[in-house]
Amino acid sequence: MNTTYDVKLGAIQHRTDRDTPLFIARWRVGGKPKSKSFRTKGLANAFMSDLRQAAKTGEEFDLATGLPVSMLASASSGPTFFELAQAYVLRRWSTSAPRTRETDAYALLSLVPALVADAPRRPTAEDLREVLRTYALIPEKRRPALTVAQTAALGWLERASLPLSELKEPHVLRTGLAAISVTFAGTPAGANTVRRKRAVLHHLLEHAVEEKVFDSNPLDEIKWTAPKAVTVVDPRTVVNPIQARQLLDAVPKVGRRRGPRLRALFACIYYAALRPEEAADLRLANCTLPQTGWGLIVLEKARPQATKRWTDSGQTHEPRSLKHRADKETREIPIPPVLVAMLREHVAEFGTTKDGRIFSTRTGGTYSSSAHSYVWQEARKLALTPAQVASSLAARPYDLRHAAVSLWLNAGVPAPEVAKRAGHSVDVLLRVYAKCMDGQQEQINGKINDALDT
């Protein structure tokens, strides 16, 4: 390698004669002109700042590449993990749900800053995560202008990210696995979180296999056991029918607007086992609500909540196909008279939105999960004993769905029918749900005694 100390830094040229504007950093090494193009002026400035710092500290520059010796390793070792991470997210963007995009990015917020070389002037962990979250891991047309700190963080990641070839080394992958095993605060991460992030890493490396970077997935060679995740419903969270009615009766007493508007939505979660995002997109056209007897809900869409930067519309709620179902596939749920009556009363009092949704804010919007949670926690205080409020009993609105499925199973409804109504596979149903009705233990024990006495 031929090196020199003869370095002269030039200016940054702004090219506007093409579809995507370019900022070109120019300098001379050993009398020979060098240049490098960037998509933003901030990145070009950060690059020139690094060259200036290297020259100031007396570092040698490579005549062939024009780069300081300290920057040669990352520049000559092929694609980096950061580049793979960006390609992975952007390739999946158009076909992924907003929550999937967010899950992918959340894993990469741990992995990308961990799989780096020990380069000087490392930005803070928060600056690195911020530039990934708000800029690097979203499509180019949606990226905001970079701040000075974000520009420095992005430039550092581009230089310090490890070449993909190094991910063949077990100790490098173990560094990544260690990073996903803790929270951003450094405490042990939850088992489900660790397993989700590990799945993203594995899938990302499968992407590298497809691109012929690896012959096989190097993560498969690592002997590492993911923490065991809880996959069954905790019986302590499940209410019995009396408690469910008490909670639903308490909901309208919370506030002047939110409580009354959310009672029937929570009732749909309990009596029809709807997921909250399914109830949020329920439309009057989806419902058959007779004057007497059982009715019917035919679900078509869900309306999950996600952070705005991950949605297509830039809104927090977007209609999506039903979970685990193909686009336009529906699910039918017969509903008992008590829910039919609640829905009829709700529509009579509050009407529907312009697009036919039954549940909305006063202005036609969709209630956030934090609004659901606030109303629910206040209703718990009104309906439950202090000991129950302090416990995990019906701690979340979603626990009403667990109660519904458990009730159906306890009532003797065949598992395939329960799975069909709840939108599960039978395998998941039998693995996740149990006969966990709070307040039924004495009754169950009595049945066992009767059997023992025969």
UniProtKB/TrEMBL annotation:
Q: What Pfam families does the record tag this protein with?
A: Phage_integrase
Q: Which SUPFAM superfamilies does the UniProt entry name for this protein?
A: DNA breaking-rejoining enzymes (SSF56349)
InterPro entries listed in its UniProt record: DNA_brk_join_enz (IPR011010), Integrase-like_cat_sf (IPR013762), Integrase_catalytic (IPR002104), Integrase_recombinase_N (IPR010998), Tyrosine_recombinase_XerCD (IPR050090)
Record's compositionally biased regions (Basic and acidic residues): 309-327
Q: Does the keyword Signal apply?
A: no
Region Disordered, as annotated, extends over 307-327
Question: Could you tell me which Gene3D superfamilies the record lists for this protein?
Answer: 1.10.150.130, Intergrase catalytic core (1.10.443.10)
One GO MF term: DNA binding
Quote the protein name from its UniProt record. Tyrosine-type recombinase/integrase
